């Protein structure tokens, strides 16, 4: 109970702690989808730290303890997490979930996030999206798009905007946390060889009913064309 917690790494501390050999989360037995997701969610941001301190009985204490004490705190303290710690979490997820292959198979990150956030830690959905008048709630957004000939090395901003446009999607409200899954996962096909991280994401044009200026006269726009 009295274990010390460590804040996310920022600026120079992030570079000092996370840069170099034997840093990050050690991979083992197709764990890359989970390693990358956990690193992204916790290494340098505290926006999902509520997952680590959600009160019982809303959450599974065992899984929460492994996540906090064996993965997140070591990552923030020393910049390194052993594969055995992630395997410990994977074994617990296999016990709790309906799926028996969390310990050995490559998964879609969304499946992992849905299981740990919804079923195990009881977090409310992070995103509210609208498409064709229908609202849907989810924990992360997966970028779907056709091959774009003019995008060789895209950035995240371009991919999110084009994906929302092609799927006719809007954000119903500003999300507290916007988890985005890139079109660069799985063993078979990678749509882009590289994607440049956008350090800030402008969601002005993605928000439903958000006041925006007319690109011609500068007044508040009354029409929006795709």
TrEMBL record:
| Family matches, as InterPro entries | Papain-like_cys_pep_sf (IPR038765), USP_CS (IPR018200)
Q: Which spans of this chain does the record mark as coiled coil?
A: none
The name this protein carries in UniProt is CYLD hydrolase
Q: What keywords would UniProt list here?
A: Cytoplasm, Hydrolase
What would you give as a GO molecular function for this chain, any one? cysteine-type deubiquitinase activity
Report the superkingdom from the record.
Eukaryota
